[in-house]
Amino acid sequence: MITNPFNEYKNEYAFDNVYGHLIEILKRNLDTSTQSGAVHLDIGCGYGAIAEHITGEVGRIYVGIDANNSGLKSLKDRGFETHEHFLESQEGALSFFERVIGDRKLGSISMLDTLEHLPNGLSILKAIATLASKHRAMVAISVPNIQHRDIGFKLALGSIAYTDAGLLDHTHVMMYDYDHLDRVLRHAGLRICDQNHVRVNHSDQFFPRDHPVLQNATTIRAFLKYIRAGVNDQDQINQFVVAALPCEPITGPTFETVHDVDRPFLSIVTRTQGKRIHTLVEYFTCLAGQVCRDFEVFVVGHRLSLERQIAIEQVIEDLPLWLKDKTKLIRVDHGNRTHPLNVGFAQANGRYIAIHDDDDIPMGHWVDSFRKLAIDNDGALLRCVSSLQNVETVSIRGRDGVRSLGKAAPYPSEFDFIQHLSGNYSPNNTLAFPRGVFHHLNMRFDESLTTTEDWDYIMRVASVVGVASSPEITGTYQWWEAGNSRAMHTDNEWTLNMAWIQEKLDSRPILIPAGTVRKILSLWERAEHVNFLRSEIDRNRNEAVDQQNLLREIDDIINSTSWKLSAPMRWPKRMLGARSSRLTDYLGLSVQQLQETRRRLLSSRSWRATRPMRAVARLFKVPPN
Fold this sequence. Notes:
It is a single chain. By secondary structure, the chain is an alpha/beta fold. It contains 24 helices and 17 strands. Strands 9, 10, 11, 12, 13, 14, 15, 16 and 17 form a nine-stranded mixed sheet that branches. Strands 1, 2, 3, 4, 5, 6, 7 and 8 form an eight-stranded mixed sheet that branches. Helix 2 links the parallel strand 1 (39-43) and strand 2 (61-66). InterPro entries: Nucleotide-diphossugar_trans, SAM-dependent_MTases_sf. One of its GO terms (biological process) is methylation.
């Protein structure tokens, strides 16, 4: 056991720290009414912050064991039994524990924030497990969590900081996440039966405060938080607190052995309800003709009746032996249309996972095109091209078949991330997803979606791993004139699902692939050009309206009664060569020129002279011209 000369770990009890969480987990798992006088053994007790609570709330006799004299003295002064011991070996520890307990009944054991200090932690745990098994006692363990995001975020960006205490205490000799803790306990002969972890938003590793990855408003922190929170729920756990019971120990190393797993290149997940057996037969016929056979098939039957299940099993039974051996039927009897995808992806062993529905057609080079694309783009979302073909079911001599309607139209040859923000241009049979996003990043299909679940998943995956595209047409996406997914769901349902997907994309930072900025700028420039043209059209339209209104006003003036009656006043100018005013003289003039013409006419001597005439006309409501 390693001691720390820089820190005595003299921490106070609190309901929301490791001590309070330990008491809570003991209280909810122990029947305190049946074991009065039983001992609670606190190994690595320190200053015994839980001692009073063990006796007062759990009803146990508290006994503390530690190598720290200061902590033991504090416990003795408070009236508790203590024993000094340095944990060195399994045999020595077990012998010492048994001497301490003697003929008393052991009710429970705790070891808080001690295991990580032990170079021989597994041996000490085996001693504890043996003791617990003999007395049928529960064991409570706590260790700090190496997976807290404060550590991970800084480590990802090149920073690690050991401290005098805390998550990266410089005396720790072993680091634990939940899986490693569970594995070590199972090897020791202890099985976790309950947990009550301590969660904190900001741990003692939340420094330096000016590090961008620790500042809440930064984009990089928001992105990492989103990705990390999706992997598991350990990102904010500061200390694991678990209760365990004795069990049969497992064998083998507690550490993970690194070795290459022999995986097929592609796992194909095929959803089916067994309604179109004739298309399922055609689909498997195409799979049997694949150039590359490095794949496996999971047929996920959703809510199958017995009749349909038997029909699907017969199709699989009739396959060539090599393909039959690669094919497995999985029955799923609950969930919406999205749930079978999560079930199929969870079963997949391939490096890549593809979705191929039972009514679409893969060409012979479908698998091979993905394989070739992956050679230089391993880990990216792979995309080829599919053609859209409208089809219908026809009956020929009593047997169902498929008839195409019109020409096939290929989808876009490249994946455009910006284009896909508005809708899905990549049907399922054009894509192969890297296995890691599902099995390591825990990116699942959103089962709250009843439609467009594939588009949602495509965008989330593409924003993390990017997309590698091939222009090769590798399959046919068949669109049924009757019974298609569009007809099975209301327009409102489609609209709501699409809005929810776009809201999710807009609510978090996303990575965009290289070259997207140029596309955005091009779209912006195009939009700016369109806006300029629109403004010019609007300006010209408004100017034309103004011209029409001014010409109408000028026409009203020169054809008015008062203007005609005042014509003699304009004869002198006419004798000097001036022409009488005609509307055609003003056609083609600009708005400014027409405004000047109107002003000149209204301020002329002849128009002013006839003002009384227009006033009388207005008085008797005679038209004022």
